[in-house]
Amino acid sequence: MTVAGAVVRRAPFSDNPDVGPRGQRTQQRIVRAALEVLQRDGYHRCSVDRITRVAGCSRASFYQYFSSKEDIVHHLATIVAQEVAAAIESVDRLAADQHGRDATRQWLGTYGEIYQRYGAMFLAYETAAGAEPEIAAIRNHEGPRNVQQIRGRLHQPRLPARHLNAVISLLLECMLRTFVIADILHAAQPDSYPHDRVVDALTDVVHRTFFGLRPEVNVHPSEGEPAPLPTPGGAPAQPRVASLDGGSGDTLELLRSRGRDVFVSRGYNGTRVDDIVAAAGLSRGAFYRYFDNKAHLAQTLVVDSLQPLAAALDAIPDVASVGKDLDVLREWLRRYNVTHAHESGMIHVWIDATARNATLDADAAPALDWGRRRLAEFLRPRGFGDVDLEAVVLAALLDTFGVRLRSQRTVDAAVQMIGRGLLGIAD
Predict the structure, then answer these.
(1) What total number of domains does the chain contain?
(2) 8: β partners
(3) Are 410 and 311 within one domain?
(4) Could you tell me which residues are beta bridge partners of residue 154?
């Protein structure tokens, strides 16, 4: 196993494991190639052959430094975990004053820079952790450690102590999703979603969550409302239902059901049409009678998932109702969680696919933009701050929160983040 930060040759390739400048450059080229392959192909389709082709080196050169695909992914996961932990450890005291807000901005800005360098690894992390116990161990160790590190840097937070750990844990998940969603929207409208504006919006939400609304410290005006993204002419169409022997409806439903299972288990980039038809026990001809390609099926499945999710999102209570009674928000979050958890698998496959593949952005960005605009409408009556970019943070929070069924403890944490961090009210 390769240790992050150490550049050494693996036995038995050299009696002298020390690596000179040329070897270090080779190792770094292999690491950069692995990130490129993870970005383009996802974890399941990443392989030593693909990495060496991108790196322009031989398999023998690869094996001087890494024993397998799993080894280099573990190496990258370790680097990311170390850099994220170092960013937290370097943070000054997080307090309610301007200095504390600046420290929060520094921490989140550094996290954003790490994401920009290692976005492919962030996106592959959960899939890799599900496949590799050693990578899951990194996540399981570093997550609670980071929560405690952040908690130790908070100076007199106004957030009740009983909520702190759950809120910090949810915030850490939300941070990553904020940058993922912002990147997709930025690709469609670069002027409306600059990186610094995203970090500023996230900073204000995080600071208000911990220390409450302080207009002179954690409120910054909007720089302009992004124009709505038009639905592209190539929006996903309904499947073409042709007449098939044995009943086209059954065949179509089988392709949808098995296709969804394969996409969720293997990810978009890791899924092939052959995988789908094998799982369905059908021919490629049957698949192509209904769908142009795997993207067409994926788009159709996402539309299926978005319909109940859009209805649940549209039922979000208004700010006035939430301000009078946070239990209104709490009850809505419970209902929303059930709906989103049921639909989240395919939605996350599509969001992660678009984050890797710019050609899919034209289809995903309008749907994300619709959700962002709906959440901006929810936030606007609060009467302060950059509702347009903070709606991206809220979209990321709901996406993170809804990925699985949540405990009452996490529901309460989401209430605190929305109530304090986004609406400026306290429980």
Answers:
(1) 2
(2) 18
(3) yes
(4) 94
32's enclosing H/E stretch is helix 21-45
CB atoms within 10 A of CB 363: 21
Say yes or no: 363 and 255 in one domain. no
CB atoms near residue 106 (< 10 Å): 16
Amino acid at 295: A
178 burial type by CB count under 10 A (0-12 exposed, 13-18 middle, 19+ buried): buried
Tokens matching residue 128: 């890799």
Question: What range defines the domain where residue 271 resides?
Answer: 248-290
How wide is the angle at C-alpha 106 spanned by C-alphas 102 and 110, nearest 5°? Answer: 170
> What does pTM read for this prediction?
0.86
Q: Look at residue 18 and give its three-state secondary structure.
A: strand
Q: Determine the Cα–Cα distance for residues 132 and 125; give it in Å rounded to an integer.
A: 10
Both tokens of 25, joined, read: 């450059």
Tokens of 296: 């067409």
- How far, in Å, CA of 139 to CA of 230, rounded? 39
Least confident residue range of 104-113, 353-362, 389-398: 353-362
21 DSSP β-pair partners: none
